[in-house]
Design goal:
The protein is of the alpha+beta class. Helix content is 32%, strand content 26%.
Length: 171
């Protein structure tokens, strides 16, 4: 791994972990978010056998990372860095079978989260949209109401995106 790649990875880790809420920051409009398009009861890995998945990290109204990860069922993925990330722009990635299984396990937890009203607009939001055959599902998680699930997704993204992006530079 080159020195510049290593520095970029360190910057990604620092930006993800050092997200701050600034009272003078631009406020995100607090709009109601749609719940799951279809009800998912007793979700299992089979129920979450997605054909496509989009995870969008929408920042906190301050200096938090903003990016999206689009994943297909075969592991082909596309990272789109928008702001406050070390890699801005598009990067093609490939998830391993183990990473795909971890994503499906996270989706089970995401699918079982309940809707909550958000009073604070200076929070991180992760939007998860996925398709199973022809059915579309959507959940919005925030760092205020969904602390445990939000943290699991954030940890998975931080750990896996660093290695995936690093490997894509070497290819």
């Amino acid at each position: 791994m080159s020195k510049s790649t290593f520095i970029m990875l360190i910057l990604i880790a620092m930006m993800v972990s050092a997200c701050t809420n600034d009272n003078a920051s631009i406020k995100i409009q607090n709009q109601p978010q749609p719940e799951v398009a279809h009800s998912i009861n007793n979700a299992s890995l089979m129920d979450i056998n997605f054909t496509s998945l989009m995870i969008k990290v929408e920042g906190c109204g301050s200096r938090c990372p903003i990016y999206a990860l689009h994943v297909l069922k075969n592991g082909d993925a596309n990272f789109q860095g928008v702001a406050f990330v070390a890699v801005v722009g598009e990067k093609k990635l490939q998830l391993s079978d183990k990473q795909l299984e971890e994503v499906r396990e996270l989706l089970i937890e995401v699918s079982q989260t309940s809707h909550c009203k958000v009073e604070n607009s200076d929070i991180n939001i992760i939007r998860v949209n996925w398709t199973v055959e022809t059915s579309q599902y959507s959940k919005s998680l925030n760092s205020d109401c969904h602390k445990k699930t939000f943290a699991k997704i954030e940890i998975w993204l931080n750990k896996n995106l660093q290695s995936l992006i690093s490997n894509s530079f070497e290819s």
